[in-house]
Amino acid sequence: xxxxxxxxxxxxxxxxxxxxxxAVADVFQALNQNRPYRPALPKEKVVDIMKAKAKQxxxxxxxMVVVLDDYNHYAEIAKSS
Length: 81
Fold this sequence. Notes:
The protein is built from four helices and no strands.
């Protein structure tokens, strides 16, 4: 949302709801899944990272709240993908 994203550096006015949802989902899923270079992160760490990214305006704070409010449901989806 602050224009530092990829690939085109679009900022908040250029990002529609779908783009914002995808950004939050991408970060959440990446943090909750095992990666070749690290295991899935614990819930507390995921929450801290997501809140920091929202505060920095890297992701939409309102959508972040929606995901964190139903964390267990979305974490199960992320881990099954």
